[in-house]
Amino acid sequence: MPTTAAYATLPAGKDPVVPSHEMSLAPGILRQVLVASFIGNFVEWFDYASYGYFATAIAHAFFPEIAPASALLATFAVFAISFIVRPLGGIVWGHIGDRTGRRTALRRTALSFSIIIMSGATFLMAFLPSYARVGLVAPVLLLLVRMVQGFSASGEYAGAAAFIAEYVPTRRRGLFTSIVPASTAAGLLLGSLLSGLMFAVLSEPQMASFGWRLPFLLAAPLGLIGLYIRLRLEDTPKFRELKETHHITKAPVTELVATHRRKIVIALGVAFLNAVGFYLVLSYMPTYLMTEMHVGSVESFIATSITLLVYIGLIFLMGRLSDRFGRKTLLIAASVLFIVFTVPLFMILQGATLFVIILVEIAFGAMLTINDGTLPCFLAEIFPTKVRYSGFAFSFNLANALFGGTAPFVATWLIGLTGSKLAPAWYLMFAALVALVAMLYSRETAGKPLAD
């Protein structure tokens, strides 16, 4: 029989093998599950934040021979190219997670492997030689490290959300899975705070020489902490039930594509807005403010940090509201709000004071939390247990590869092509329209047992 150590004592005579949504999760195990899921995504998005926030310094270190605007574009191109491997990583980690478990007896899991590789690749960023030392080898090494990081990170978000969803009760699934996007925002917040501090105390030559490397050093100890916690956890009750009844599929990806194509398309559509919105609003915005709005670097990071603090608080509220009003309702509401308000908010940014910029960023963050706080639970719920990890990881990472990682590049390119500083707004508005259409064809998943 599957172990029931993770759960409070059941009434006498009850079969311990019951759906996880009907069980009472012991508080100690719940904390471990949430912390283990938090750490990996925190490290991943701290890395993305550091890369995005220090993009101008990284551009100077690796592309000094070209014009600043082109160097920045090249830096974002490396950022975008590294996302190409994420769908492949999603397939690999999804296969491991759906075939061998979210957590195996041999202590080798998708979540454990991914955090080791991811934190290691991020740590290596601090030691990459610059263009001045090794010439063209430098940007090649930069690209390789970013691709390894992208491959490993592709298992984190989906794995953490599926892990939590399969542990917690149905009625609170939205609230608890919202810790996954909260962890990404927390990683961005730490990156923003460090960036603002370093831009304030270091000169521009110091930033270009060694300053941008310092944040990446934190990845190693954070990754080891996350790994230690994960190795102490058991597999999820839902997966143990699946294994007990011998319903594990031998080829999760094949079954996913063969029988769940409609769900994949819906997941891609709604994740389109999440990918573009997340990387434009929370990662690219400081660079946009500095390069296009000519806002000071410290002021830009102050605005972003305040936004992220509000964002983290709202994420949990949106997760709770999705439990009450439904995933479909909130995801449609997010799409409509972005369609209506994106362009006007970007227009307000033109020549705005710091106070107004903060209000605009908070408004964008609030709209994004409606999508971001609901999406991980929705994606975990639409796919059945035997292909949940694969379905979530493939669709989410494909959306991020096509639209998320490319968002800063596309925004910078569109501004250069059109000469309009509103170009990123129209792109974000289009993403919201696609997500709206996708959600109109979806079914409500809140308040129901996980699909099997």
Q: What would you note in describing this structure?
A:
The protein is 73% helix and 0% strand. By secondary structure, the chain is mostly helical. It has a single domain, classed as Growth Hormone, Chain: A, CATH 1.20.1250.20. Helix 16 (297-325) packs antiparallel against helix 17 (327-349) and helix 19 packs across helix 20 (388-404). The relative contact order is 0.16. Residues 1-23 and 104-108 have low confidence and may be disordered.
SSE layout and pairings?
Layout: H1 27-53, H2 55-62, H3 68-81, H4 86-100, H5 110-124, H6 131-134, H7 137-153, H8 156-165, H9 173-177, H10 179-201, H11 204-209, H12 219-230, H13 237-244, H14 252-259, H15 261-291, H16 297-325, H17 327-349, H18 354-372, H19 375-382, H20 388-404, H21 407-418, H22 423-440
Helix pairs in contact: 1-5, 1-8, 1-10, 1-12, 1-15, 2-3, 3-21, 4-7, 4-20, 5-7, 5-12, 8-19, 8-20, 10-16, 15-16, 15-18, 15-20, 15-21, 15-22, 16-17, 16-18, 17-18, 17-22, 19-20
